[in-house]
Every structure is written in structure tokens, then in C-alpha cells.
Amino acid sequence: MKLTIGYFYKDLLNLYGDNGNVEILLYRAKKRGFDTELVNISIDTKITTELVKNINMVFMGGGPDSSQKAIYQDLLDDKKDFLKGYIDKGGVGLYVCGSYQLLGKYYKAADGSYLKGLSIFDLYTQHFGNQKKRCIGNTVAKLLINDSLLERTPSTIVGFENHGGRTFLGKEANPFAKIIKGHGNNSQDGTEGVYYKNSIGTYFHGPVLARNPHLADYLIAKSLKLDTIKPLDDSLAYSAHTASLKLKR
Ligand code: GLN
């Protein structure tokens, strides 16, 4: 069994150590004895059937408006067909902040420019300008994924957010989690991220999977189509998780 991660725009979308998530996924898969492969895909990588044929996990990190501007046209021109087909068919993936925003209908940036999104997720994002306070701080949310893989794990995820854009979900979009502490999608409706088929969009930045091993294992198990996954000794990570529940925003 092999975990093959398609890692998009590693060079341009990697705020606050988002790339740690890929390392965590590879590490945890190897610990279970699974083979792993990393397929790096950036602006100068053209999608071919051969390149993407084994991918069973996609990861894309976050980035500032300037990075989003640098990649959004390439996403539309070269990566859209693959990503839309992959996600709609139930392909597993994690998309953080700046990339999460670009998988929706559009992102209206801080300077008013309009970045067309891939319209895979039924949502849009608007930045209301630099005079409006950014959504920054520690976050805690209750997972809304109903899956037996998460039955015996913490029901919370902990993390960190830093975004100016506010995301609003459409009727077809279900949130990935319910905010307990922090801003989440828009600081108004208590929603955090999106959960669509087997893909997660989230504002939880940095190595969110290091702080939430249950989410990492959920993604690995889904990618490999496993009903259960052998636990690892995560006592240290979970004591950090428990401590994080009490952090100030
Ligand atoms: N530029 C986007 C925003 O501020 C995304 C930032 C990020 O990925 N942290 O909303």
C-alpha cells in the first residue's frame, strides 16, 4: 500500500510552516510500514496523466495575496481539470487558508482585485481591506466529520489562524468544524473551513496535523481506503493538544 502525496506550490504556498503537514503525513505513513511518494507540482510543472496517476492525497498550503495572485491563473489554466475531477470523485486532500480560498468561487483581495477560483467548493471569500482587523490567533474547533475513524479520538482540533479574507459558505458547502475559540471562516457564523466529499479546506495554519494526529491519521486512512489504522504513541502530541484547548486567543 502506498501513500502518494501531490504537493502543490510548495515554493509559493507555505506560510507558518504549512509544509510540516506533508512531513507529518509521510512520517506517520512510514511508521505503519506503508510506502510513500511525494509528487511536487508547481507553476512550471504541467499536469499529465502519468504525473498524477498514483496520487491519493493532495496537499496545498496557504500564502499571502501576492502568492495567490502568482498562482491563481495557473490553477485555472493547468491544474483545474485534474483537481476538480479528483475532488469530485472523492479524492482526499487538505487545503489551507490561501489555497482553500482559491478552491471556492472567488477571492476578492485586500486591494480589491478579483481572483477567480476553481469553483470546486461552494463558497466565496472577501477581504474587506487592511483597515478591517485580521483574524489572528489560537483556534479550537469541534470536528463535524461523522466517520467511524474518528470515533475514539478527540472531538476537537486545535490550531492557529491568520487571515484577512472572510469566507462565506454556500448551500452546497458543509463546514469542516464548529468554532469554539477563534474566528474560523468569517468571525460571524461559527463555521470553520469546508468538508466536501473527502476534501478539507481550513484556516488552521502551520503544521495543524502535528497538533492533531487524529486528523492526520483520518486523512491517511481515507487515502488508503482503510476502515481502521494502527494507533501510534501520540501521548506527547495529545498532551500538547489538551494544553492548547486552554490557550488564549
Ligand atoms: N491572503 C489571504 C488572507 O489574508 C490568505 C492568507 C493566508 O493564507 N494566511 O485572507
Describe the fold and architecture.
With 249 residues, the protein is α/β, with parallel strands linked by helices. It has one domain (2-244): Class I glutamine amidotransferase (GATase) domain (Rossmann fold, 3-Layer(aba) Sandwich). 29% of the residues lie in helices and 28% in strands. The chain contains 7 helices and 14 strands. It has helices spanning 20-31, 49-52, 65-88, 98-102, 208-211, 213-223, 235-245, and strands spanning 2-8, 35-41, 57-60, 93-96, 106-108, 114-116, 123-127, 135-143, 156-163, 165-169, 177-181, 191-192, 194-196, 199-202. The strands form 3 sheets. It has a 6-stranded mixed beta sheet with strand order 2-1-3-4-14-13. It has a 4-stranded mixed beta sheet with strand order 6-5-7-10, with helices on one face. A 4-stranded antiparallel beta sheet has the order 9-8-11-12. Helix 3 links the parallel strand 3 and strand 4 (93-96). The longest helix is centred in the first third of the chain and has 24 residues, at 65-88. The protein is globular, with a radius of gyration of 17 Å. Bound molecules: glutamine. Glutamine is lined by residues 15, 62-65, 68, 97-98, 127, 162-165.
